[in-house]
Amino acid sequence: MLGMTPKLWLEALDEDHRYGSILYHYWQRWEASRTRWMFFEWLDYGRGSLIDLPIAPRRLLEESKTLYLTREELRLCEVRIERSTGRLLWCADGEPVTLPLPPIGPETETARSRCMTALIEERLTTSRRREALLREARIQVEDAIRSGAVATPEALDAVTKPLIKDGLLRALRDEYFQERGIVRPTIQDEASYQHMWERFKVRSRWTPDGELIDAKKCGPAYALPSSLLPSLSWADVLAAIGHEEGSGMPRGRMDTADERLRPNKPGKGGIFVIDMFGTMHAAHKVSGALHHSSLTSGHCCRFAGSITVEAGRVRKVSPHSGHYVPTQAEYEALLKCWRQDGLDLSCAEIGQLVKEKRPA
C-alpha cells in the first residue's frame, strides 16, 4: 500500500487541491513566519495572501488546481488487459490505449477522449485567459520601448489595468514585493518586516467582542492596492510580466496551457495507478491539472508509475511518480502480476526504480 509523499499531503487537504509541489513552497514560507494562523487561512486570508514567490509565482498557485476525479469520471480512465492479445484497452469503449496522447485531431478523438479533454479544459480556462492578457501586454510594452514612447502614468495604466483586474502584476503595486519573496527570512528580518504587513491590513482577525471572524465570509484581512507604484518604467513592467511567466522559477518560464495539455516530450505524459482494489486507471498527465493523485483522489494505492502505450501495446513502464514512491519489491510484484494476467511486456522497456542522473 502506498500513501502520498508527506510534502504533497497539502494538496489533498486543500479544498481547491492546488498542486502540492507549489503549495509546499508557501508552506515553507508559512513555517518560517511564526504566525498563529493555520496554513490555509494564512495563505488565502492572512499575511500569506500578500506573498508572491519568484520560485513559485502566485499565478501558478492559483491556476494549478489538481482535478480529483469522481467515481463516474474515473470510469473514463479505467483500463483492462485483453488476455487474448496482451493489449491494454479502455473499459469505457473497448478501444486500445495510447499514451501519451497523440496530437488532437478528428481521426484520433473518441467520445471517451472528448469527455476527458472537456474535464481538463475547465482547469485551463484561467490559464488561457491570463496567457492572452500577458502576451498582449508584452507586445504593447515592447512596441512602446521600440518607438521611444514615454512611460507616463496614463500609458502604464492602459497597459497594466486588464492584468491588475485579474489579480496579476503584484510587483508593480507592492513596494515590499522583493522582501515578501524571501522564502526563509531570519528572525531579525521577520521582526523588521512587521510594518510592511500592517500597512496593507484591511480588517482585524477578531470582532470587537473577541470572536474569531469567519475569513471565508469576510474575505482577506490584507489586500494590495490596485494602483501602480510611482516612477515605474517600461522595463519594470516587462520584469513584472516575466515574473508572471515564471522567469524566477528554477526551470525557467512556465509552460502554456497548450504545452501542458500536449507536452512536446516524446514518451512523456502517460501515467497509471493501481487502486486498493487492483483496478488500473491511466491518463495523460497535464501539469497542474491531472496527476497521479487525480486517479486516487489523494488516497492510498497499490502502485503508481509512468507508462507508454501504442495501440494497446506497452512500450515502456517506469515506477516513477512524484506523488507515490514504490519499493523494488512492489515494482517486481506488479510486473509479475501483469504477466500472469496476460499483459504482453515482451517489447516493453522496463524502467529502473532509481532514475538515471541527467548528463552534466
Architecture overview:
By secondary structure, the chain is an alpha+beta fold. Among the domains are: 20-63 and 175-223, no CATH class; 71-100 and 265-350, no CATH class. Helices cover 37% and strands 10% of the residues. The protein has helices at 9-13, 20-33, 39-44, 58-63, 71-74, 111-147, 153-165, 177-180, 187-192, 194-198, 215-218, 234-244, 257-261, 328-340, and strands at 78-82, 87-90, 270-274, 280-284, 303-310, 313-318, 349-350. Strands 2-1-4-3-5-6-7 form a seven-stranded mixed beta sheet. Helix 6 (111-147) packs antiparallel against helix 7 and helix 6 (111-147) packs antiparallel against helix 12 (234-244). The longest helix is centred in the middle third of the chain and has 37 residues, at 111-147. The chain is globular. The relative contact order is 0.16.
In short:
The protein is an alpha+beta fold.
Provide key terms for this protein:
alpha+beta, cytoplasm, 360 residues, single chain, seven-stranded mixed beta sheet
List the helices and strands and how they pair.
Elements: H1 9-13, H2 20-33, H3 39-44, H4 58-63, H5 71-74, E1 78-82, E2 87-90, H6 111-147, H7 153-165, H8 177-180, H9 187-192, H10 194-198, H11 215-218, H12 234-244, H13 257-261, E3 270-274, E4 280-284, E5 303-310, E6 313-318, H14 328-340, E7 349-350
Parallel strand pairs: 6-7
Antiparallel strand pairs: 1-2, 1-4, 3-4, 3-5, 5-6
Helix pairs in contact: 6-7, 6-12
